[in-house]
Write a structure and sequence with these properties.
By secondary structure, this protein is mostly helical. The chain has a domain of about 70 residues. It is built from five helices and no strands.
Length: about 100
């Protein structure tokens, strides 16, 4: 069974990836023309991404991503790398 830190790290990354992959470039371009809120360019908002990907850790994942996006994801990467190896290796892009 994975450690709680590992589970939190994994869920942080999954929720962030779900949110980021929903970016709609054409919607963002439209919003830029009328100086709109770029959060509207995401088809999946952060709260929904956390609900869908973080399970029982929805609230802490949402709060960490909402208030400390970069720091939370940096920490998550360090935890995952310590256990699973570097991201490139996990994704099959490593040299060796």
């Amino acid at each position: 069974m994975p450690s709680p830190a590992y589970e939190l790290a994994r869920r942080l990354q999954e929720a962030a990836n779900h949110h980021e992959s929903s970016w709609d470039k054409s919607k963002a371009d439209e919003l830029a023309e009328r100086q709109g809120d770029f959060q509207q360019a995401y088809r999946v908002d952060l709260r929904t991404a956390c609900q869908e990907k973080a399970g029982s850790m929805e609230v802490p994942v949402y709060l960490l991503l909402h208030y400390a996006w970069n720091d939370a994801l940096d920490w998550a990467e360090e935890v995952r790398a310590a256990i699973d190896g570097p991201r490139e290796q996990r994704e099959g892009k490593g040299h060796g």
